[in-house]
Amino acid sequence: MNQNLHPLPCARLQERAFWAQGIGQTLANEYGKSIADLPDDLQQYLEPTDLSAVQISQTDMNRLWHAAAELAKDDCFGLQMGQAYCSNTLKVLGLAAVSSATVGEAVQRVIRFFSVFSTQVQLYSVEDDQHVTVYFQPRGTPHPMHMEALLSHCQHIWEALEPTNRPMVIETRLIGDHEKTRTTCESIFGKRIRPGSKRIAVKFNKQTMNIPLTNADAFLAKRLDATLEDMLSAVPNVDFAEQVKQRIRVLVSEREVSEDLVATPFNMSPRHLRRKLSETQTTYEKLLDEVRMELAIRLIQDGKLNLGRIAFELGFLDPSSFTRAFRRWTGMSPTAFRTQSRSGGSVSA
Are residue 93 and residue 229 in the same domain, yes or no? Predict the structure, then answer.
């Protein structure tokens, strides 16, 4: 994964400021770097004060990850931060997990309350005959290192739950190209990793889900649930437009996007969808345009696909239509944008 890519964030989404403090502490303690070398306007989020009620936008969060990665010069900075820093919130979530009656109940508790820990990702599970796979579904466009830090943080919880008589985690999936950093990844997640996956996920052995936990504590679990529910109610809501936008991202990636398909998971008609979106001062067309712009910029910077293929992946009828849209988004042609990106120049939308 090229961590120099600076993904387009969403200013509407808010994250808890302890994430910024964790980045600062990791830079100082693990890399010997000073927060004074980070952007001046972001340093307020790294002060050693109580920022538990402070929020930072996804826009600034991504800027901070980008600046920290440049300072650390480590493609595994997100993974290392997840290992080196443990917030009080994660400790509460981990305690709730190990207080559960079974491994499966613990995993579901983590899924249920994960938004208390980070608003940038939603967890959900899919089961088959042999496995339970937990997917890390991004909200907005969190920085890749933020996603990896979340996965690395969760490894602490999985290790606390793992039975002694059989492996619980069958596979950990990473979206980046981590072949050059495989040794580091294996030191964190063990040998069972799959780099270059489409989505970050953890595959569990379904047979371990019913194993009782030795530290089960129903009295404590009930009270921690009440505390986490209260914390969850205070988490900033992801607005409806962002949920629709995430649905559009999935459908664009599958090259099957339409208003009908977007509206289906929300149990509403396309007409009702438009009415709900108008309440958030946007439209289906605007959100589709935003998603295409974000994906176009990322795919061009990534450099793996030619421009014709990118146009096809994004659902444009022909390359000329894509070029016109790209000029509208960025003020330059896709070719010029790719050239500038490769030369290391500053590109933005």
Answer: yes
d(C-alpha 16, C-alpha 273), whole Å: 30
Residue 83 lies in a domain: no
The reported pTM is: 0.70
How far, in Å, CA of 311 to CA of 313, rounded?
6
Which tokens go with 35? 């927060």
d(CA 106, CA 254): 33
Does 99 share its domain with 71?
no
Mean pLDDT by 10 residues, the chain (349 residues): 43 83 94 91 89 87 93 94 92 96 96 90 89 88 92 95 89 87 92 89 95 95 94 72 86 87 89 87 88 87 87 90 90 86 52
Cβ atoms of 272 and 330 closer than 8 Å: no
Report the first-to-last Cα separation within the chain, whole angstroms.
21
Residue 272 lies in domain: 240-342
Could you tell me the two tokens for 81?
A: 């931060």
For residues 74 and 31, is the Cβ–Cβ distance under 8 A?
Answer: yes
Cβ-count burial of 271 within 10 angstroms (0-12 exposed, 13-18 middle, 19+ buried)?
exposed
Distance CA 101, CA 251 (A): 38
